[in-house]
Design a protein that fits this description.
single chain; mainly alpha; two-stranded parallel sheet; 2 strands
Length: 189
């Protein structure tokens, strides 16, 4: 006998990777700095691509980018950039690779000014996730005034690939915003 059907956000059923990501990560509040930094870089890698592409390559990204350790990334040189450009397991885009290095430097600026990336980000929502009540995927915005503000503030700190749309997707991924649809089994996280 089968149990009741599990209802998920409509985007989450295209692949096993997307289903697992939806069920175990997306929309769950994340406060750990290294994980927040890694997700920021992955969201930047997604620019112009599908999230499914990034999920399929995620393990390769972690290996290629030294587990997204900002203290290692800030020391990447031209030889490392060329090595990454030859790696078929990741997105081989020079601007995105250089942005990872730039963002590692900006990360340390944030830590110096705000104590942690977590404190910098979560202060925008008073350290509590914003819970939305969308009925359909078509209602979910690509960006919001808040993502506009965070994007501008991050650009001032030197971050790259942090446009408002990327930042809104990032806010969803790290649980600053809960955009699980109302009929999704994870809406009440």
């Amino acid at each position: 006998m089968e149990g009741p059907e599990i209802i998920r956000c409509s985007w989450a059923g295209s692949s096993a990777e997307e289903t697992e990501y939806h069920d175990k990560e997306w929309g769950r509040p994340e406060y750990e700095d290294r994980r927040l930094f890694a997700m920021l870089l992955l969201e930047g890698q997604q620019a112009g691509l599908s999230w499914a592409t990034i999920l399929k390559k995620r393990e390769n990204f972690y290996k290629a980018y030294d587990n997204f350790d900002p203290s290692i990334l800030i020391h990447y040189d031209n030889n490392k950039i060329e090595e990454l450009l030859q790696n078929p397991g990741i997105i081989r885009n020079r601007l995105k690779i250089q942005a990872a290095i730039t963002n590692a430097k900006a990360y340390f600026k944030v830590v110096e000014q705000y104590g942690s990336l977590s404190d910098f980000l979560w202060k925008y929502v008073d350290y509590k996730p914003v819970k939305n009540n969308w009925q359909n995927l078509s209602e979910v915005p690509a960006s919001t005034p808040l993502s506009d503000t965070i994007s501008k503030d991050m650009k001032k700190l030197g971050f790259k690939f942090v446009g408002s749309t990327i930042i809104y997707a990032y806010m969803q991924s790290i649980g600053m915003v809960n955009d699980h649809l109302c009929d999704c089994f994870l809406h009440d996280l």
